[in-house]
């Protein structure tokens, strides 16, 4: 895994927003992506890059499109 990119930070912001709106915790996210809470924490803290397969799993769990997780504040996918 590589260090997080700008896009990873956008994804993390969107994932965090979705988590909060659904009252999910890190353990819930870990169950969705099939990784440990420690690994998910590394994604959320920007120490690891989000794998695309995890974005697909999260989008399905959140009921959104993957592209919604890639959008920045002005709504432009990078």
From TrEMBL:
Coiled coil regions, renumbered to chain:
none
Q: Which Pfam families match?
A: HTH_26
Which PROSITE patterns does its entry note?
Answer: HTH_CROC1
Source organism's superkingdom?
Bacteria
Instruction: Tell me the Gene3D superfamilies matching this sequence.
Output: lambda repressor-like DNA-binding domains
Q: Which InterPro entries match?
A: Cro/C1-type_HTH, Lambda_DNA-bd_dom_sf
Q: Which GO terms describe its molecular function?
A: DNA binding
This protein's species is Subtercola boreus
HTH cro/C1-type domain: residues covered: 28-69
Protein known as: HTH cro/C1-type domain-containing protein
């Amino acid at each position: 895994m590589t260090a997080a990119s700008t896009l990873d930070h956008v994804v993390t912001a969107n994932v965090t927003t979705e988590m909060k709106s659904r009252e999910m915790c890190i353990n819930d996210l870990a169950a969705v992506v099939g990784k440990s809470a420690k690994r998910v924490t590394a994604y959320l803290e920007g120490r690891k890059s989000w794998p695309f397969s995890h974005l697909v799993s999260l989008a399905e769990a959140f009921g959104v499109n993957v592209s919604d997780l890639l959008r920045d504040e002005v709504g432009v996918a990078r």
